[in-house]
Amino acid sequence: MDDQDPGQRPPGALPPPPGGSEPPPPSYPPPPGSYPIPPGASYPVPPQGGYGPPPGGYPPPPQGGYGAPPEGYPPGGYPPQPGQPTAWGVYPAASWGQQPPVPPPRSRWPAVLAVVVGLLLLVGAATGWGLYRASGLGSGTGVGRIRTLPPQSPPAGAGQGLDVQSVASKVTPAVVDIDTVLESNGRQGQAAGTGMVVTSSGEVLTNHHVVQGATSVTVTIPGRSGQHPAKVLGVDPTADVALVQIQGVSGLPTVKLANSSNLSAGQPVVAMGNALGQGGSPTVTQGTITGLNRSITASDPTSGPEQLDGLIETDASIQPGDSGGPLANASGQVVGMITAGETQGFRQQTSVAGYAVPSNTAAAIVNQIHSGRTSSDVYLAPFGYIGVRAQDLDPRSAAQLGLNITSGALVVGAVSGSPAAQAGIGQGSVITQVDGSAVTGVRSLGSAIQTHKPGQHIQVTWADQRGSHNSTLTLANDPAIP
């Protein structure tokens, strides 16, 4: 560990934001490019809200750093408290970045990595996605089959232009705001996304990552006062699709899903959503379809890298919080559900390319949930729940933790009082086995859990800096499913 006083700024270093917090130690460089120095000032003026970490975060000291950062800290993290050479300490009140107990708007930002030929996009750091999925054989929702409609031609006399307001007026009455509460390591935070009403009784189509790991879900409906409690009915994490039921409502307007199999590049589209999680009337933007059948690896601050295939690509501007929102054609029919965006540049939030799950894919998953059939990809409520947030273990994290293991699910957060927390599984633990079967990462951990129902028992093996451990966990009910 660096023995220098972390309170002494080296030449060129940045000051902490107003309100103060310890600055990074001398071995931490300022963000690339820094900020402009005003005339007569010896240090830059901090931007509103404090300085954010550079892409990839501040590197740890050369001596090897302080171990794996807790959830919400940038890779490389913040310095430990004085006298705690291996601890991460308390998150600074004003901090060197935005205080992130849990990030607000839910979407695949700040970036995605596309794996289509010749396309390489910026990848954001991941803190892992929570494993809150395990299927129980359900009896179905009792709702009829969701059907996609043949695409309609634009209204006669519309000419070559796209009537954005006309499209929005047909779709937005069925677009809802989804707000969630998340908890990790004893801290709570809120997140926001978008959903589309697909049945008049209040079933809402959204992204899995919008509701993933939530301890509660509420929905704001256009034209109705207050927030309405909701519960998750089923999910397909591999396609990033979830179906949510608003409780105690009826007679709601619904979106019209169009058959997405005949989409073509250059076709005009309109994107709508709860941009930046601000609520109110949906943000509406227009663009075109720029690609089909795209494959990407996407991540956000609460989910690790996930491979998504068969997506629609669009140049319509989208932002965090739009996740789960509609991508509509010129006739006001929904052809896709917004799921990810690519940004360029530090702190940029508006996308230069967006990606959406095709309506045919989403409708098929909704119908499978309605049928009550589980599969290797589709899980029905109630879900077994151990209460961890995890990411795949990588060599750097294993080395920082001093663990002589090469694979597993690295826990970056645990919900207080959850089965995992009660067993002693916490931040920095690496789950390596469930019921004697190897866990190689978050996907295999999810697969190991999803065959069990709440109330059943699983045997979990994990390692941490104290050694190897084994315990029997009783699965709880997912709190997002009242």
Task: Write a concise keyword list for the protein shown above.
Thrombin, subunit H, 6-stranded antiparallel beta barrel, single chain, 482 residues, Pdz3 Domain, 6 helices
Task: Work out the strand percent.
Answer: 25-35%
Shape: globular
Q: Return residue spans where pLDDT drops below 50 for at least 5 consecutive residues.
A: 1-7, 19-38, 41-104, 109-140
CATH fold naming of the largest domain: Thrombin, subunit H
**SS-based class:** mainly beta
How many angstroms separate the termini?
A: 47 Å
Main beta sheet: 7 strands, antiparallel
Figure out the total of helices.
6
CATH class descriptor of the largest domain: Mainly Beta
Give the radius of gyration.
Answer: 23 Å
Helix content: under 10%
Topology as H/E string?
A: EEHEEEHEEEEEEEEEHEEEHEHEEHEEE
**Beta-strand segment tally:** 23
CATH architecture tag of the largest domain: Beta Barrel
Q: What would the average pLDDT be, to the nearest integer? A: 74
Number of domains: 3
Q: Could you characterize the architecture of this molecule?
A:
The chain is mainly beta and 482 residues long. The chain folds into three domains: 1-100, no CATH class; 101-152 and 163-381, Thrombin, subunit H (Beta Barrel); 383-477, Pdz3 Domain. Helix content is 10%, strand content 30%. The protein is built from six helices and 23 strands. The chain has helices spanning 164-171, 208-211, 359-371, 395-401, 419-423, 442-450; strands at residues 112-114, 129-130, 175-184, 187-197, 203-206, 214-220, 227-236, 241-246, 268-273, 283-300, 303-314, 326-328, 334-342, 353-358, 379-380, 384-385, 388-392, 409-414, 430-434, 437-438, 457-464, 467-474, 476-477. The strands form four sheets. Strands 2, 17, 18, 19, 20, 21 and 22 form a seven-stranded antiparallel β-sheet that branches. The longest helix is centred in the last third of the chain and has 13 residues, at 359-371.
